[in-house]
């Protein structure tokens, strides 16, 4: 274990962990959970994070450096660890776990846990014993299902309603509804008949339509033979409604099997993935479901897919465990999931990655859906980004009559002291906000003396040659600090390297805050109170600040090197220590020999004193 990666307390905890299944939680110095995982053998799994030979990606290495504490919960089996891990991830939302990015909560159909259950739509899942069917990708699909059930089984509007369910009192509250006036309210049915109807509703929600149709035909036949023609007519209507619904479901398998198919697709550009589930019951595709995954950088598809599958089965769902589970990629470790499904269903559930045939075709169809959803997601994000464009950016485009919105602005400024230590800076603003990771510093190499025009020309040539050679992002607007002279030099530089015309360029003169544009003799005066002018001023001032700080830093280093480090035995580290103590080289020069010897020792202090006073 690397002592630089984890403190001694965590190291001791890892050494004493049991070789048992369970869940581990890494925490930072503020006791926030960084990552939650499960393990078949806790000690081995947790120790692997801190081994130098682990071959971890950058994301994990960064996380390990932040670990200050460790908490574990031992379980009896991997299946229990799987459930506990999922619940803890949802509760604490750790930064380094794969998370789900949903712009909405998905709709479910709830069948309440009451003597007379209600059936109603909800987006809130409560662990109260009720059954939740879904989630549904489409609200319209869910509404059609509710309407079909109401027509097929005669459930009245107060039974298929959320408004009449009082969850705080633990029981449904029966109220009069429109059907009550027609003397057809299901609230008046006897208990046995009502519960039998709810059982049929659940079978339909589970996709068991073939078996339901057979039972309804048998019930209708029995009612007819018993001369209960009114009851037989009601069952006939139910039968027709269920048959109509069943015909609309797509037949995707020759065998009447129950099957869940999971697929994952990744979009590197937006750094998100989409997981898609096709739920097949009795050979028919009864529903599909998708979720977007974030925190996927450096993760393999198998890891993302495993997270998606485990999250689905350990969450709230009443669709039942199928006979078969098929996946688009191999899972990293399917043992805990297989054990969990076996325990839930009572017999083995096959988890397999199909390579050919009908199942592989279904997986390809799920992947196509995931690709389509990611494409729509990307368009939504682009549309949202366009809506977030600040007013100052839009206003700047109007005032300067630019061809495109100046969303990315790069601004340049020079700095020198009477020609010494000439430097330049480039700052970057994106949507009116600083993008400090893309700031640049330049040492002027070809210009002698205080020549701002030549310095500006050199810097822009170097910057945009690199942009072209490395195919970096081209700015929407280049701003140079200065008037016509600096702008002319900048334009000349861009023309020489063949970059001119790829984006707009302006000069901003400080005295009157005039804006100069190439090919236009008169300057543009933007109103003083305009947000566009304030944006330009912020950009220019930030470039100036950045250039000044770079120049001072360079000058300070040169002073240390040319003065203190020329003294025998004084290196940069000692020189910096002395400057921190005394504040400047001048103060060191004036210091008494006793003070110098106290700071750097008798021998070194004498040398420093002799150097300055001999020179004097």
From TrEMBL:
Where does the GIY-YIG domain start and stop, copy by copy?
19-98
Q: Which residues form the UvrC family homology region profile domain?
A: 273-494
Locate the UVR domain: which residues?
Answer: 210-245
Q: Does the keyword Zinc apply?
A: no
The record's subcellular locations are: Cytoplasm
Q: Which InterPro entries match?
A: GIY-YIG_endonuc, GIY-YIG_endonuc_sf, GIY-YIG_UvrC_Cho, RuvA_2-like, UVR_dom, UVR_dom_sf, UvrABC_protein_C, UvrC
SMART domains assigned to the protein according to its UniProt record, in alphabetical order: GIYc
Q: What is its main location?
A: cytoplasm
Q: Which UniProt keywords apply?
A: Cytoplasm, DNA damage, DNA excision, DNA repair, Excision nuclease, Hydrolase, SOS response
GO function term, MF aspect, one: hydrolase activity
Q: Which SUPFAM superfamilies match?
A: C-terminal UvrC-binding domain of UvrB (SSF46600), GIY-YIG endonuclease (SSF82771), RuvA domain 2-like (SSF47781)
Q: For this UniProt entry, which residues form the secretion signal? A: none
Please give the Pfam families that the UniProt record associates with this protein: GIY-YIG, HHH_5, UVR, UvrC_RNaseH, UvrC_RNaseH_dom
What interactions and quaternary structure are annotated?
Interacts with UvrB in an incision complex.
Biological function: The UvrABC repair system catalyzes the recognition and processing of DNA lesions. UvrC both incises the 5' and 3' sides of the lesion. The N-terminal half is responsible for the 3' incision and the C-terminal half is responsible for the 5' incision.
Family according to the record: Belongs to the UvrC family.
Q: In its UniProt entry, what is this protein called? A: UvrABC system protein C
Native organism: Fodinibius salsisoli
